[in-house]
């Protein structure tokens, strides 16, 4: 019985991924190489899942354990089918059918693990055409200017597909045919199972060819159709690293175009790289040299870049992230980050917060409106809402053995050049004087100053550096001051502002904020 059974549900997609991929010259199996942040087989699985099959099988052999583990990680429901030592795409498909429940009916799709640009909607239109034409087999074909290496589509006098001949088995006349087999098919399940039992290995390569199923189905009276597509990228496989880069670039072109059509401004798509699993809100602007990687999610009206790499990072609406590297970080709505900031895993910046230039953060929860504007390392930190961390502050979280946490309360101020030696807590509404090396907690309303008191030694320069330009400058300054004092005595006298400036100079209570 080689006519369709009448049941049209999509029983399974079989992804063939047992090939070795020797031309990659890699210790990593070919299908585990990545473009757009996903492995090649990851792209194949995503396309397969887009058409919601009842079952999904991936055929593996080369570097079996690595590929199988990855497939299970990407898609825990996928069935792993092992190909034995019999070679060929027909045998690979047979091994998948052995691993799936027996006696499937309806439609079965076969795709490849190394054809990453094949889209789910192309597979859907293949299924639709296959069902509408009541075909036993429908194969995706394309016309190529240079069809070398591909199987060629043999059409009969009526234009119907009679079979496929491999390049290596083809006559000169057949090699002149430019319509090629993509290797992607829809089969009636019963036809496929029956025909595969009849496929031999009598060909130049001694392999069990899946392509032989078409002629067998046709001879048994089934209809064999071609689904000709124009978008040649969708049938192109990766065989070497030149193709990997070429397809990676085209995938990125498609991804950036998709986001522009969704309302995202991308100033320079050529230098912007966006992984397949990234999401971006409307009216966000991406500036040149930006890479949005992994599961990064950007809200609406944000500005990202230039020269920014965000991996698995979440950015809230209206945030600005400039010249920044971030990994597993969360940036709140309306927050600003950069330039030259490094956000490591566990960084959470609150709404309207700020992480500024030459600041590195790790496992740091920074509250709404809190600011870490300049030259800081904040590791294992909890910083309250509205707090302000002065320039050059270091959260010394590591004592050489263990990591410890520092907490800074709401609306507290940390003076510049402070070392917070963890574990240490600064309460809400407290100050720490600039230049402190803080080892103890600070209570609400206090200022803590933990540094040497300033000592000024009169006449030191004249004694210890006599004859230097410094000593001469000191002498001149003293002479000028004496002259000015004489003028002031005859004039208005010492002002209160001058007096305050003099005392402030040695006052330990100065908080010394250098940030704006
Ligand atoms: C195959 C087709 C050819 C088509 C071309 C499109 C056959 C006999 N030929 O040729 O008509 O034009 O694809 O690219 O089907 N694979 C396995 N197990 C195997 C052999 C292959 O899983 O034993 C997988 C590979 O991992 C790969 C895919 O099947 O993903 C195609 O294998 P490949 O060796 O590239 O097939 P071609 O000889 O190029
Ligand atoms: Ca191939």
Automatic annotation (TrEMBL):
Region of interest: N-acetyltransferase: 263-516
Residues covered by region (Linker): 242-262
GO molecular function: glucosamine-1-phosphate N-acetyltransferase activity; magnesium ion binding; UDP-N-acetylglucosamine diphosphorylase activity
Catalytic function, reaction form: N-acetyl-alpha-D-glucosamine 1-phosphate + UTP + H(+) = UDP-N-acetyl-alpha-D-glucosamine + diphosphate; alpha-D-glucosamine 1-phosphate + acetyl-CoA = N-acetyl-alpha-D-glucosamine 1-phosphate + CoA + H(+)
Residues annotated as the enzyme's active site: 374
InterPro entries reported in the protein's UniProt record: Bifunctional_GlmU (IPR005882), GlmU-like (IPR050065), GlmU_C_LbH (IPR038009), Hexapep_transf_CS (IPR018357), MobA-like_NTP_Trfase (IPR025877), Nucleotide-diphossugar_trans (IPR029044), Trimer_LpxA-like_sf (IPR011004)
Superkingdom of the source species: Bacteria
Protein's pathway: Nucleotide-sugar biosynthesis; UDP-N-acetyl-alpha-D-glucosamine biosynthesis; N-acetyl-alpha-D-glucosamine 1-phosphate from alpha-D-glucosamine 6-phosphate (route II): step 2/2; Nucleotide-sugar biosynthesis; UDP-N-acetyl-alpha-D-glucosamine biosynthesis; UDP-N-acetyl-alpha-D-glucosamine from N-acetyl-alpha-D-glucosamine 1-phosphate: step 1/1; Bacterial outer membrane biogenesis; LPS lipid A biosynthesis
Span list, region Disordered: 480-516
Binding-site positions, UDP-N-acetyl-alpha-D-glucosamine: 16-19, 30, 83, 88-89, 112-114, 151, 166, 181, 239, 344, 362, 377, 388
Location(s) in or outside the cell: Cytoplasm
Subunit-structure text: Homotrimer.
The protein, known as: Bifunctional protein GlmU
UniProt organism field: Pedococcus bigeumensis
């Amino acid at each position: 019985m080689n006519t369709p059974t009448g049941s049209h549900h999509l029983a399974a997609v079989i992804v063939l991924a047992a090939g070795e991929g020797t031309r990659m010259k890699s210790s990593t199996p070919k299908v585990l190489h990545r473009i757009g942040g996903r492995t090649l087989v990851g792209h194949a699985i995503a396309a397969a899942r887009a058409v919601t099959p009842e079952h999904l099988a991936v055929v593996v052999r080369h570097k079996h354990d690595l590929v199988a583990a990855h497939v299970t990680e990407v898609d825990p429901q996928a069935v792993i089918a092992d190909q034995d030592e019999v070679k060929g795409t027909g045998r690979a498909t047979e091994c998948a059918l052995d691993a799936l429940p027996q006696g499937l009916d309806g439609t079965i799709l076969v795709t490849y693990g190394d054809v990453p640009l094949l889209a789910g909607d192309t597979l859907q239109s293949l299924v639709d055409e296959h069902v509408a034409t009541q075909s036993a087999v429908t194969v995706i074909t394309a016309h190529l200017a240079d069809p070398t290496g591909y199987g060629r589509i043999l059409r009969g006098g009526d234009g119907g597909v009679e079979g496929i001949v491999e390049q290596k088995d083809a006559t000169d006349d057949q090699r002149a045919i430019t319509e090629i087999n993509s290797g992607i098919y829809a089969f009636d399940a019963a036809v496929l199972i029956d025909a595969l039992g009849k496929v031999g290995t009598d060909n130049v390569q001694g392999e069990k060819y899946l392509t032989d199923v078409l002629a067998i189905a046709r001879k048994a009276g089934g209809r064999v159709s071609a689904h000709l597509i124009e978008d040649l990228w969708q049938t192109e496989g990766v065989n070497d690293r030149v193709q990997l880069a070429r397809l990676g670039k085209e995938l990125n072109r498609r991804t950036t175009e998709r986001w522009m059509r969704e309302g995202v401004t991308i100033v320079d798509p050529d230098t912007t790289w966006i992984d397949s699993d990234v999401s971006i809100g409307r009216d966000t602007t991406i500036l040149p040299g930006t890479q949005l990687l992994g599961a990064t999610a950007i809200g609406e009206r944000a500005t990202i870049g230039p020269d920014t790499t965000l991996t698995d990072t979440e950015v809230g609406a209206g945030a600005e992230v400039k010249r920044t590297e971030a990994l597993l970080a969360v940036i709140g709505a309306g927050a600003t980050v950069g330039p030259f900031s490094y956000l490591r895993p566990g960084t959470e910046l609150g709404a309207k917060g700020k992480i500024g230039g030459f600041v590195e953060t790790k496992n740091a929860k920074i509250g709404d409106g809190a600011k870490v504007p300049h030259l800081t390392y904040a590791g294992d930190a909890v910083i309250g809402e509205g707090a302000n961390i002065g320039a050059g502050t270091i959260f010394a979280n590591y004592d050489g053995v263990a990591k410890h946490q520092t907490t800074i309360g709401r609306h507290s101020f940390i003076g510049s050049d402070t070392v917070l030696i963890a574990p240490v807590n600064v309460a809400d509404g407290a100050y720490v004087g600039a230049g402190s090396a803080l080892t103890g907690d600070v209570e609400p309303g206090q200022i803590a100053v933990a540094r040497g008191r300033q000592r000024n030694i009169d006449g030191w320069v004249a004694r210890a550096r006599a004859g230097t330009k410094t000593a001469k400058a000191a002498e001149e300054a003293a002479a000028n001051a004496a002259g000015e004092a004489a003028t002031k005595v005859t004039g208005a006298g010492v002002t209160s502002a001058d007096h305050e400036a003099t005392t402030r100079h040695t006052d330990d209570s100065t908080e010394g904020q250098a940030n704006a």
